[in-house]
Every structure is written in C-alpha cells, then in structure tokens.
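Q: Sequence in, structure out?
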Amino acid sequence: MEKERGLPYLVKVIKIPDGPAPEKFRKSWVGLQLPALGDNPVLEQNFVTGELRKSRESILVLASSALDILEKKDPDAARWFREHMPPDMELFSFGADEVQRIS
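A: Exactly. Output:
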C-alpha cells in the first residue's frame, strides 16, 4: 500500500484489527474510514502490557482523529481506548491487511 509523501489519504477498516483491546471494541473499527498518514513497517508495542510485537507492514493514523470517528459509532469503544492508551500516544497502527485504501 504505497503512498506518496504529503497529504493524508483515507483507508477503510475491513478486518477486525489486532491489538490489546477486547474484541467487542476492536470490532467497532470495521467499516470506519480513517485518515491515514502513511505506511511503514513499524515495531509495535502493546499499549496495555508494554510487550513488543514483531514488525509488520502498518498503516499509521492519528489516534485523536481515529478516536473521534470511532466515538460516533461506538462511544464505549472510544472510551475504552482513551482510558487505556498512554496519554502521549499520538498514532495508532493498523495492519496493511486490516485496511483498504479508498482515496
């Protein structure tokens, strides 16, 4: 999923993303359109346990924007993420296989 550097582009979440949240909250991401900042293989860290995860091709999105969009669909899910993520966490990463570029 290559992108020229510059303006954000939109992705649609098409698969329940991996992550530390309970599945019922991760399911809420499916179908949402999020502004992506780029793609990059990143070493991910479980923000609940601190455990590192193997690097994977990831799509990066601003956490604040993503949570604002999620909140409209599922306020409880957005609340869970806000309560459990570190206050300085600026980006969420979605696996390249979890999203589809739409613009």
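Residues 9-101 form one domain.
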